[in-house]
């Protein structure tokens, strides 16, 4: 809303109220309030009045006070609209509409255009459902047919069946994609992700912005090719530390990352699968070789996951708490812990460390041996961990990614002391590289002013480290 509209609307409302009060006084009759309207009001429109009780109920007064704009949805400034209902319900205009329509069900809102549109959508959905039934019957007949009757044999039959099943899935999405109830449930976070329409809407929303941000972080921080030669995320992964959302690539305090995060993961295809979670530090300084190496901070495997699940607290995977107490044991419904959580840390003077979180899907949903992984990578096996080697050795496919960064701060030494991590007293300094160029003779402005009469200018030309020039020395 523009600023002129914000200034003019209160004035217009005041004039309307004054006109309404004058009219009510002159004619001695109540003014009807149009709660719902599908067309704009006109001056020559006849207003129908209804009889009202002499004494209004206290509940009606409370409802009127709670909703400052009971008659129209578009009234009020942006600040006033933003205070209506929960921000999780969508835009400010939608929250204002929900706050002013009372207990009327969404599908029964008495807007003529809305109801007519629902009739058209219902007819279109019926046509799509009829096509789905016809295609499903065709699939059943094709499954019962003998593969020898086809020119291409069994390969042609399976290819044809796969094409028909994909067509049925597309029809299911097209049947519900324009339904306002479906869109409302999805915006409110109440959609059933086992249904293809909600998975499609979630994937479209993720590709609109969040996937682009993840791809930008992968390119910006050189995740490819530093950790993997090629990587394209296909699932949505978010992380939360201590209940707070963390944007990918943020620099976090070491006290916050002392405990393992909670991952919000969303897949967009049907069926259950097994995941492994790897947390990797890609920037561990190696002073001996004057380079960097990698360190494994967390590894969990055999995590069953489906489209209806969305939250994975790593602290529940048997030892990810990092608080020194007895950790929760990992069960078959949560997966198996191979390498417990190691807090993120960086020595003083070192550049920021890229703490990467990868989600890897198992091939053919085959579980891995957690005891074998613990023997390979726990303890000394953390140092020099290679994600590419781990992927190739166990046949895993990276599908999800997020990251954060860590630097030395005022809490890093305490965190390292609590977890017995050495190196808190180590400080990295940049090595001074001396120039190999030979001394350059004076030239230009400096060469023309080497005589004693320009002594007052020598302070601008003789500032050389280690040499002192005094009056009368030359």
UniProtKB/TrEMBL annotation:
Biased composition (Polar residues): 16-26
Compositionally biased region (Low complexity): 47-58
One GO cellular component, as annotated: mitochondrion
Subcellular localization(s) per the UniProt record: Mitochondrion
Signal sequence bounds: none
Superkingdom classification of source: Eukaryota
CDD domains: PEBP_euk
Key words of the record: Mitochondrion
Region (Disordered): 1-68
Protein family according to the UniProt entry: Belongs to the phosphatidylethanolamine-binding protein family. Mitochondrion-specific ribosomal protein mL38 subfamily.
Function: Component of the mitochondrial ribosome (mitoribosome), a dedicated translation machinery responsible for the synthesis of mitochondrial genome-encoded proteins, including at least some of the essential transmembrane subunits of the mitochondrial respiratory chain. The mitoribosomes are attached to the mitochondrial inner membrane and translation products are cotranslationally integrated into the membrane.
Name the UniProt record assigns to this protein: Large ribosomal subunit protein mL38
Native source species: Chaetomidium leptoderma
């Amino acid at each position: 809303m523009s600023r002129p509209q914000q200034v003019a609307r209160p004035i217009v409302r005041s004039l309307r109220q004054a006109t309404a009060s004058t009219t009510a006084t002159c004619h001695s009759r109540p003014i009807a309030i149009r709660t719902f309207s599908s067309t704009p009001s006109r001056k020559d429109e006849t207003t129908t009045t209804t009889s009202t009780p002499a004494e209004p109920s206290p509940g009606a007064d409370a409802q009127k006070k709670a909703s400052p704009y009971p008659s129209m949805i578009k009234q009020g400034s942006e600040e006033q609209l933003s205070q209506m209902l929960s921000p999780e319900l969508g835009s400010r205009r939608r929250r204002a509409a929900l706050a002013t329509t009372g207990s009327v069900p969404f599908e029964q809102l008495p807007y003529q255009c809305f109801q007519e549109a629902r009739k058209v959508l219902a007819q279109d959905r019926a046509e799509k459902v009829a096509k789905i039934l016809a295609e499903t019957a065709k699939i059943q007949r094709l499954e019962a047919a003998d593969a020898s009757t086809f020119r291409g044999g069994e390969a042609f039959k399976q290819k044809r069946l796969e094409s028909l099943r994909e067509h049925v899935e597309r029809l299911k999405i097209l049947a519900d994609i324009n339904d306002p109830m479906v869109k409302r449930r999805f915006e409110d976070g109440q959609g059933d992700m086992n249904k293809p329409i909600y998975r499609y809407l979630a994937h479209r929303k993720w590709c609109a912005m969040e996937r682009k941000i993840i791809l930008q972080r992968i390119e910006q921080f050189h995740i490819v090719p530093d950790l993997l030669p090629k990587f394209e995320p296909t699932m949505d992964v978010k992380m939360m530390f201590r209940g707070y959302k963390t944007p990918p690539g943020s620099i976090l305090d070491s006290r916050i990352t002392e405990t393992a995060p909670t991952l919000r993961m969303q897949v967009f295809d049907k069926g259950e699968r097994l995941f492994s979670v790897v947390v990797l530090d890609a920037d561990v300084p190696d002073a001996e070789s004057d380079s960097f190496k990698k360190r494994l901070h967390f590894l969990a495997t055999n995590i069953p996951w489906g489209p209806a699940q969305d939250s994975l607290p790593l602290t529940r995977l048997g030892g990810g708490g990092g608080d020194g107490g007895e950790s929760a044991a990992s069960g078959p419904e949560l997966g198996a812990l191979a390498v417990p959580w190691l807090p993120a840390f960086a020595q003083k003077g070192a550049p920021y460390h890229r703490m990467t979180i990868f989600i890897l899907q198992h091939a053919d949903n085959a579980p891995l041996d957690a005891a074998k992984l613990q023997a390979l990578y726990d303890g000394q096996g953390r140092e020099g961990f290679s994600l590419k080697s781990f992927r190739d050795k166990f046949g895993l496919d990276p599908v999800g990614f997020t990251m954060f960064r860590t630097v030395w701060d005022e809490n890093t030494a305490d965190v390292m002391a609590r977890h017995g991590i050495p190196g808190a007293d180590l400080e990295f300094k940049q090595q001074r590289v001396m120039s190999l160029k030979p001394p350059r003779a004076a030239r230009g402005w400096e060469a023309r002013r080497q005589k004693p009469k320009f002594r007052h200018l020598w302070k601008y030309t003789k500032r050389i480290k280690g040499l002192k020039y005094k009056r009368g020395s030359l």
